[in-house]
What we know:
The radius of gyration is 22 Å and the shape is globular. The chain contains 15 helices and 16 strands. Helix 2 (100-108) packs across helix 3 (126-139), helix 10 packs across helix 12 and helix 13 runs parallel beside helix 15. The longest helix is centred in the first third of the chain and has 14 residues, at 126-139. The mean pLDDT is 94. The chain has helices at residues 27-38, 100-108, 126-139, 150-154, 156-162, 173-185, 232-235, 244-257, 278-288, 307-316, 330-335, 342-354, 375-388, 406-412, 438-449, and strands at 6-11, 14-16, 42-47, 77-80, 93-96, 115-118, 145-147, 167-168, 214-217, 220-221, 240-241, 262-265, 293-300, 318-326, 362-368, 391-396. The strands form four sheets. A six-stranded parallel beta sheet has the order 9-12-13-14-15-16. A five-stranded parallel beta sheet has the order 3-1-6-7-8, sandwiched between helices. A three-stranded antiparallel beta sheet has the order 2-5-4. 33% of the residues lie in helices and 16% in strands. The chain is of the alpha/beta class. It folds into two domains: 6-185, 3-Layer(aba) Sandwich (Rossmann fold), CATH 3.40.50.280; 213-449, Aldolase class I (TIM Barrel). Strand 6 (115-118), helix 3 (126-139) and strand 7 (145-147) form a beta-alpha-beta unit.
Amino acid sequence: MKPRRNVLLVNPWIHDFAAYDFWVKPLGLLYLAGILRKNDYSVRLIDCLDSRHPALNSYPEARPPKRKPFGQGKFARQVIPSPNPLRDIPRSYHRYGIPPTLFQKELQRGEKPDAVLVTSTMTYWYPGVVDAIRLISQSFPGTPVILGGNYVNFCPSHAAMYSGADFIVPGAGERGIPDLFKSLFGDDFEFQPDPDDLDSYPYPAFDILPGVNQVSVITSRGCPFRCTYCASHRLNPVFRRRNPEGVAEEIAFWNRTIGVRDFSFYDDAFLFNPEEMAVPLMREIQRMGLDCRFHCPNGLHLRSLTEDIAFLLRKTGFTTLRFGFETSNPDSQAATGGKTTNQDLSLAVRSLRHAGFSPKDIGVYILCGLPGQTADEVRETILFVKSCGARPIIAEYSPIPGTALWQEAVAASPYPLTEEPLFHNNTLLPCRSDRLTWEDYRALKKLARENTFENE
């Protein structure tokens, strides 16, 4: 029998000009923790982004942030020097999350790990990853530090060279970690989920997070669309779905065992073919009598939203609705993937309004800063969204390596995108031009924020 090994999982800081907690949880790490426990590993997680850490009150440099009643809110933050490539940007740069001294105390709590697994998300957040790995390596010399996540997936050479990790694991961790642990320790994983059957996965280990007040849920992996700006199909080339009854059972489990009421869906295609997933899931939630609120920050598809589904969303407890629209320009819609049209938005908003959602409830994402995009296109899109009776939300474009739009972004950007991931940062508007300037952007942000629904 193999010895029971200790594995530490770390969700590192965000280093950026701006960041906000839209129900963010390290879901990949939590799924991996569930799989490790199934194989008799002891797991512990340090979440550097834990804004509800009880010790934050003892650190005046990181005041406990304001939180909102549904589980979202600000991160704790500290101003830090900007990285050299970003020194000319006239904005304060922050470390979002717990202070490093608190992180070091957390590292020393508990038994010494046999391995440390670190995740990563946005490519341009890698400085927080590097800092976390440096402190981990100082605390546990000789212990293998293993890095996975999106930074590794999109910038593997950069991650291998600069992260400080002993090993990088591209792709799904549940596929790469068993082979690596076999090489490092001679361990065999007796339990491994079937990657083609998402219902074979154990629940993510939310119970190892302290004071959980919201749970993130996925009903699928991948996306049936191939939008040119999106990397979903690179991360998950095949679109796979769970059983809707199984998803409802998971929601009921967290609701009844730890009292969670707020759930966020991070799917890329929750409303695609709604009779396969969204409709049976919502009906099962209602049948179970669950008193929950549901949030969709990732952007729902508009095309399938009928009046019946709008009423079903309302009745089931869907509270935060966000939709991916991107642009009202028909040529741009077709060129970027053709997932939606102006008519789709108009009909969907009308249905949602009839179901009782107000304009401020219906957030519509508009991409700003695409290569070659003009300020007029963004302005017209904002006005069109408002005319439909919804709330426009500017989403600044971030170039992602390997997407269909990547080479066009590289050619359009004044920054060396291929050399330095920091320049992928959407705050920079990496593909801005004289057709969409900083001044244009500020005016567009102001236009989007102007409330035209005060009497609604």
